[in-house]
Amino acid sequence: MIRWAPNRGNPSSVLIMDTEAEVSEQIRWFTCTPGEEQGSWVNHYAYLESDLYTLVEALFVGVRQTTLDKYDQSETSWGLIIEHLEFTRDQHLLADGAARMLIGAPYHYIAIVNQALDGLFSKLTHRDIYLFRRIALPGMTITICSQLGVRVHKAAGWSWMGFKTVYEKIRKGWHIRIRTRQVLDVLPERRATPDDLFDDALEHRPSLYVVRGEINPHLRPLNLPGIIAAKIDSDLQLTT
Q: Where are the domains of the chain?
């Protein structure tokens, strides 16, 4: 079931966690941003067209047009339906067209491998590694779910944001050391993961997004950070 806010607004993003599939759990583990103690909360992204019913998703069988019913009737999926507050109706229609242009495109399996490799090295080094995804050949049509989300919004003038590592040279006399820090910047399409999109909407820039619906509220992770759970409840105007 889907719990909608009193005002359904103009949402265009659906972020989803499959609570049972093992591959979904593995995706969340590999795409967890270093420093996140609890891990990733979602493993899939779907673009919601302006009719608030039709979805465009990059699935293992390729990019397909589906409907929100598949999650409304799901017994294993938890997720959030999110509106980008500065994303106008006209921009949404442009994104609809960009999403439909991708229907039938093959799934980018190599991108998943590259994400897993970056994720593994990030775990080993305890820092955010963006290497294999950076050197991957850019596909004009092949895509994965999070890349689809970045691509169609970019086509309509909206940029997702994410943290990137900046290296600074600190010089003191003869001594030089390298300091690293995280800065918020435009999220490159090849770098994007479902976790990055979730983080932007719920943690990095929550004032620019509002939760318009929650898929299967009873499946909400019990260890979801309190500040995120509070935003969801506030946006949905829950009273219990």
A: 2-159+188-236
Question: Which is nearest to 194 in space by CA: 162, 144, 146?
Answer: 146
Say if CB 46 and CB 55 are below 8 A apart.
Answer: yes
CB–CB of 228/202 below 8 Å? yes
Please, what's the b/e burial string for 136-164 (b: 16 or more CB within 10 A of its CB; e: otherwise)? eeebeebbbbbbbbbbbbbbbebebbbbb
**pLDDT bracket for residue 121 (50, 70, 90):** confident
Q: What was the pLDDT predicted at 170? A: 75
Residue 224, token pair as written in the block: 């979801």
Q: Which class is domain 2-159+188-236?
A: alpha beta
Angle (CA) 95-24-83 rounded to 5° is 30
The string of pLDDT tens digits covering residues 137-169 is: 666 678 899 999 999 999 999 999 988 777 777
Tens of pLDDT along 44-102? 999 999 999 999 999 999 999 999 999 999 999 999 999 999 999 999 999 999 999 99
* pLDDT value of residue 240: 43
CA 77 to CA 79: how far, in whole Å? 7
- Residue 62, Ramachandran bin (φ over 0: left; ψ between -120 and 50: alpha; else beta): left
